[in-house]
From TrEMBL:
This is DUF4179 domain-containing protein. Residues 239-345 form the DUF5643 domain. It comes from the Bacteria. It comes from Candidatus Cohnella colombiensis. The chain crosses the membrane at residues 55-76.
Length: 450
């Protein structure tokens, strides 16, 4: 039986300023022994992810290890404990406090729109807890509840806006794990809006949950929600600043154009000179720093960039909109980059060996087969100098005849990267194109914005 229940927004405002008390309280607590290892293990487990063509950028979500360690080791003050008790999405809120200063500031400034819509399909309830929205981004927070504990591992297979119309957008979302036994899962859907897009008063969201094990009788479940958006809450809340400065790093020219500051994030237009000899992937440590030395880095658990064309992109940063800094600097030290002549990796599927690769860091280890998914996995080893998960290859690849194929799934850990290809007729060797790689150029980027 399918049941759908909708609840209107409550009129009583939440006391979001209390979030500051919670942050200060957590900040003053000593971290328990072993937390570094717990975080590393949690991040490693969280790096399994799915990729889809429709997404602007799919970012893996961190596991809940940090939340669990903090919650189990903290004795909340009475004020903080009372505040925590009011929040149905504690996990999401704590993650935002830890990883996105901009969203934290938005919550502290009463920017959350409470929704409280839920739908129960065959024992799995999906609740839309709330949204944080402005003219650039919509964050939708949801909770999955295993009502009777009988359902096995499920994941968010697809999310889309049904009434998108002329809305130009991309969605990103991740899954925190595929545990067979579970009670509650929390996550978010990040809606990335193109400049000038007008949001409707309601978003019709469709979410499809699927069983991870395709052999089980439990089928896909599709949930529908009509989410109200209070546009008056954020209308006109943005600021544009012209940077228009070019820097040179190891002979590679980079121009920073216009910066737009929204409550949920900051977007900076970046253009790479077409004459550059290297393909520039991503900045390792780019950040905005104010006069007090407080840094706001790039988005970590959401859409980190939007590609405009081959040489232009928009980088997204955590927002300082509510701080109104008097001085602001853009700083970076290293950029992941690779010679343009080394971007293709050719794989001999018959002999299972690499015919070309950028350097000795990359090797082909083995293959795997997933009969239920009708796909074959190529398992690469990437000897990395840090704990980082890479979208190593682009989704599309070609075979020896030049025919193009699509890979919509990949999985990665600290060193291993698995790239899935469909088990269809394709002539060996195939050619994969590198999308990111742990090779770097270094320079001191320090631009005064205001």
């Amino acid at each position: 039986m399918d049941e759908r229940h909708e609840h209107g927004q409550e009129n009583q405002p939440h006391e979001w300023p209390q979030l500051e008390a919670m942050r200060e309280h957590l900040g003053n607590l000593p971290f328990p022994q072993g937390i570094d290892e717990a975080i590393r293990q949690g991040m490693s487990r969280a790096k399994q992810r799915r990729r889809r063509r429709k997404l602007v950028r799919l970012c893996a979500y961190s596991a809940c290890t940090l939340l669990i360690v903090i919650v189990l080791s903290v004795r909340f003050s009475p004020a903080v404990a009372a505040f925590v008790k009011e929040i149905p999405v504690l996990g999401s809120i704590v993650e935002l406090i830890q990883y996105d200063k901009g969203l934290q500031l938005a919550l502290e400034n009463d920017f959350m729109q409470k929704v409280s819509l839920y739908e129960d399909i065959d024992g799995i309830k999906v609740t839309i807890d709330g949204v944080v929205a402005d003219e650039s981004r919509v964050m939708i927070f949801y909770t999955l509840t295993n009502m009777d504990g009988r359902k096995g591992a499920v994941y968010l297979d697809e999310a889309k806006i049904v009434n998108s119309g002329d809305i130009q957008y991309g969605l990103s979302y991740g899954n925190s794990g595929f545990d067979e036994v579970w009670e509650l899962k929390q996550g978010s859907i990040d809606m990335n809006l193109q400049e000038g897009t007008q949001l409707p008063n309601h978003l019709e969201l469709e979410m499809k949950l699927s069983p991870y094990d395709k052999s089980v009788k439990q089928g896909d479940a599709v949930y529908h929600f009509n989410i109200p958006i209070d546009k008056e809450k954020f209308e006109g809340m943005y600021e544009t600043i012209a940077i228009n400065k070019t820097v040179t790093v190891e002979g590679q020219h980079i121009t920073f154009g216009e910066m737009t500051v929204y409550p949920t994030r900051i977007g900076i237009e970046v253009e790479y000179d077409a004459a550059n000899t290297k393909k520039l992937f991503y900045f390792d440590d780019i950040r905005l720093v104010d006069e007090k030395g407080e840094a706001f880095g790039t988005i970590m658990n959401g859409v980190s960039a939007s590609q405009i064309d081959e040489n232009r992109t928009i980088l997204y940063f955590q927002s300082n909109y509510f701080l109104k800094p008097k001085e602001l600097y853009l700083r970076a030290r290293s950029i992941r980059a690779l010679d343009k002549s080394k971007l293709e990796v050719r794989v001999d599927l018959d002999e299972m060996k690499l015919l070309s690769r950028p350097d000795s860091l990359l090797s082909l280890e083995s293959t795997s087969k997933r009969e239920l998914w009708n796909e074959r996995g190529l398992i690469f080893n990437l000897r990395n100098d840090e704990m980082r998960s890479y979208n190593l290859f682009k989704n599309s690849y070609t075979d020896a005849t030049g025919q193009t194929f699509e890979s919509n799934r990949s999985e990665s850990s600290n060193e291993y990267y698995q790239y899935f290809i469909e088990k269809v007729e394709q002539q060996s060797p195939i050619t994969l194109t590198i999308e990111d790689y742990p090779a770097r150029i270094y320079g001191d980027v320090n631009i005064q914005i205001r």
